[in-house]
Amino acid sequence: MSVHPDLHQRYVQACQNLGQSENPFIARVLQEAEKNYKMGWTKGITLKIAGNNYLMPVQRVTDDNLQVLTSVLQNTGFVTGLDLRCNVLTDAGAKHVATFLQENSTLRYLNLMFNDIGTTGAELIARALHRNETLVYLRMTGNKIGNKGGMFFASMLQINSTLEKLDLGDCDMGTQCLIAIATALTQNKSVKAINLNRPLLYSQEEETTVHVALMLKKNSSLVELHLCKHEMKNFGVERLCEVLYENSSLRYLDLSCNKITCDGVKFLGELLKRNQTLEILDLSANRIEDDGAIYLSEALALYNRTLQALSVVSNNISGKGLVALSDAMKTNTELSYIYIWGNKFDEATCMAFSELIQTGHLKPNCTDVEPYEVDGHIHLAELSHGLKKHYYWTPSCGEAMNKDANASLAIVAVSEF
């Protein structure tokens, strides 16, 4: 593969050839990539052309801008990642992306989250991935591809054997394509992480959760699963727990923003007593209350030594349940991350978590609260930590790769591959 370090000059020439005006943001990013190349960084470069960069003037990338950019990058071997989040790309831009994916043999990471790509664009990109053998991580978050667009990705999963991480959250997918994706994943052996957050579901029967459970019974490769905003209730949680007793691959389960109560958490508590695989459990924005917290704390204090991170943010838990969780952390040295903001703190809660931090059972950067004292009383302040700290946003300078307070789908870098 030939490598062209003169990216900026080639970009200027391509703009002239295609009769397009230059995008100064793209030009600046390409100049920076050239500089990195000349410093000896010849592989694994990700071009960060995100439209939500607030540290420099940004002219968001259009379909025409993308046409020029892909022509420049076609034979550029050292560019393995492309971050185009929060721009104004449409289905016309998706056509350029699809052509690029069919012809390029080095791109491993592509972030298209929060553009204006619809069903037609989803079809073009999914069909391109039938033949692409290099892309490992694709983020389509926030593009309204709908149920039909999701079906094209379900079909792609039956053919593609390279893609490892697929993010289809907030894409307005429906019941039909969720079932199709779950069915495809019963046979797909390459996908390690998938985000199916916030589908548009109009049934209370939880058919999609049942099909996901059937998939987990047969799938032995999936490590990370996001099922946020699935209208999941206790029946759905029970179906998942039934199959997770036998599943030995899933490490990260996201059940946030559902309708799970203490009765559903009772099944999770029993699962944690026997499951030796789960490492991250996100129950944020449910309603597990004190009884649910106590079920979890009993399992974590006496039986489970695998779970490393737990989020119970905004679950209507009061001091009784929160203190029980803090007590579990004193005996369970494996549980290192816990997030509790949005619950009902009393003085006992504040004292318990202050003691955890002071004694070293809980590191300050592994939770979302920080103790402070006023008039002899301990209170807890909120920290901006959490399992999804960098899901929608990543720092414009520095790295977001710190394991503390981050979900893996949000921070995977090309360099990891």
TrEMBL record:
Keywords: Repeat. The keyword Cell inner membrane does not apply. InterPro entries: Leu-rich_rpt, LRR-containing_regulator, LRR_dom_sf. SUPFAM superfamilies: RNI-like. Pfam families: LRR_6. The keyword Flavoprotein does not apply. PANTHER family: LEUCINE-RICH REPEAT-CONTAINING PROTEIN 34. This is LRC34 protein. It comes from Aramus guarauna (Limpkin). The gene is Lrrc34.
